[in-house]
Design brief:
- By secondary structure, the protein is an alpha/beta fold.
- The protein has a single domain, classed as Aminopeptidase.
- The chain has six helices and seven strands.
- It has helices at 26-29, 46-49, 110-139, 177-189, 205-210, 239-256; strands at residues 4-7, 13-16, 59-63, 142-150, 165-168, 195-197, 217-225.
- The protein has a seven-stranded mixed sheet, with helices on both faces.
- α4 packs antiparallel against α6.
- The relative contact order is 0.18.
- It holds the Pfam family FGase.
- It comes from Luteibacter anthropi.
- GO terms for molecular function: N-formylglutamate deformylase activity.
- It is an enzyme of class 3 (hydrolase).
- This is N-formylglutamate deformylase.
């Protein structure tokens, strides 16, 4: 099985969707607790939301495996992204609700984690690196857009309801100040959705690692509250709500190409 799919576009824009995958191999699933097998913390339907990116000529990279198998937005050595805060790791053992993923004694050991990095993490990051390099060579610049989504309420990670649109640029380090200003200006001019820049989510490993504006590669993460386009309990996609969200997503992506 291929570990990802890559649509190669013509514009200097790569949309990466590292938590869209929901596949869990049977040998791993057999060791998981039944509720965890739903892969509830998947960034559900972001591939559908970002279908508008193809019309802009963007490249789109999508993994197959669930983040419960491997979290592609974590460093391969497993170090924390938000030191001092509770978070899930490279190979999570708890869900966002704090419940255990594995049956007692069935958690992956260091050898298994290393194998998952080899099978799932490295191919995705190789594809991401190569595609960014191709776009940078062709256009002289490239924008990496990290498309994410999460439940509107996750007490383990943040208090209250999450803003609708959560822009992350590693506090301005992962993209040019000009791009960040254009994006925040666009968000500030609309009244349909709440938003914040560099709030609870500042950008994960991919945004921080690949964003090098001084070398012509800007990286931006968008963490979208799922209540805006899907049913958070059933995971059902809600096309009418999603269509409204897509209008703003497309406008943000267009801004990246200016």
């Amino acid at each position: 099985m291929d570990s990802y799919t890559l649509h190669r576009g013509t514009a200097p824009l790569l949309v990466s969707l590292p938590h869209n995958g929901s596949f869990i191999p049977k040998d791993i699933e057999a060791r998981m607790k039944r509720p965890a097998r739903r892969s509830a913390d998947t960034d559900w339907h972001v591939k559908e939301l970002y279908a508008v990116a193809k019309g802009l000529g963007a490249s789109i990279l999508v993994p197959v495996a669930s983040r419960y198998v491997i979290d592609l937005n974590r460093p391969s050595d497993g170090h924390a992204l938000y030191p001092g805060r509770k978070e899930t790791g490279l190979v999570p053992t708890i869900q966002f609700d704090g419940s255990d993923i594995y049956r007692p004694g069935a958690e992956p050991d260091a050898e298994e984690i290393a194998e998952r990095v080899k099978q799932w993490w490295k191919p995705y990051h190789s594809a991401l690196f190569d595609e960014l390099r191709r776009l940078r060579k062709k256009h002289g610049r490239a924008v990496l857009w990290e498309g994410h989504s999460i439940r509107s309420h996750v007490p383990m990670l943040f208090d209250g309801r999450l803003p609708d649109f959560n822009l992350g640029t590693a506090d301005g380090a992962s993209c040019s100040s000009a791009l960040q200003e254009r994006l925040t200006t666009l968000l500030g001019e609309q009244n349909d959705y709440s938003w914040v820049a560099n709030g609870r989510f500042k950008g994960g490993y991919i945004t921080r690692h690949y964003g090098k504006p001084e070398d012509g590669i800007d990286a931006v993460q968008l963490e979208l509250s799922q209540i805006n386009y899907m049913d958070e309990d059933s995971f059902d996609y809600l096309p009418k709500k999603a269509a409204r969200v897509q209008v703003l997503i497309e406008a943000l992506l267009k801004t990246c190409l200016l």
